[in-house]
Design a protein that fits this description.
197 residues, 73% helix, single chain
């Protein structure tokens, strides 16, 4: 029965708050709800202290808790009405902003666009392959030829040096492995080849 009365009370308060003018300041309402919540908590604490003075403490404290819970439920209901109104107001503002944006885009799309002149297209003759061109028509290629051949020679020397170093490393590893086999130790297995993956 108490819960039924509580729900009816909450619904009636919600109905009254819903009928309040939309111009009511939410901050003042929220401050009032917070103030009432603090007052309800103080009343509960005071009642709890009074109950401790009595002989039957548990029943008195349970009754105080029930009253405190009902007060908090009533205030929570009022707060939820304010929250719902604020959500609706924000949704209406978002919808208005979206409508404005869509109408601005529609107006921009409907406006005549300035006519731009077409860019001039120039057609050039197709390029000839370098091998097809006569040697006399390539003066820049002959000028950089000594420089290029020197660079190629340096690259070739570096490559051959790396190859010699790799071969020396392989020979040294094979020699060490042969020594280990001669001493009767287990042969070291080589690392897997990364190119085989």
């Amino acid at each position: 029965m108490n819960q039924f009365l509580l729900r009816c009370g909450v619904l009636s308060v919600c109905g009254l708050l819903a009928c309040m003018p939309a111009q009511a300041d939410d901050r003042q309402e929220r401050a009032r709800i917070a103030r009432e919540r603090d007052e309800a908590t103080l009343r509960f604490q005071q009642r709890q202290r009074e109950c401790e003075q009595r002989f039957a403490v548990t029943a008195c404290v349970d009754e105080a808790r029930a009253e405190h819970r009902q007060a908090l439920l009533r205030l929570r209901g009022q707060e939820s009405v304010l929250d719902e109104a604020e959500r609706k107001r924000r949704a209406a503002q978002r919808m208005a902003a979206i409508r404005e944006k869509v109408s601005a885009e529609a107006a921009r799309d409907a406006a005549p666009r300035p006519v731009r002149p077409a860019p001039a297209i120039t057609v050039s003759a197709p390029r000839q392959k370098p091998s097809a061109a006569p040697a006399a028509s390539r003066p820049t290629a002959s000028a950089s030829s000594p420089e290029r051949s020197a660079q190629e020679a340096r690259s070739r020397e570096r490559f051959e040096k790396r190859q010699r170093e790799a071969k020396a490393h392989r020979d040294e590893a094979a020699r060490r492995q042969a020594e280990r086999a001669k001493d009767g130790k287990a042969a070291v297995r080589p690392l897997p080849d990364p190119a085989a993956r």
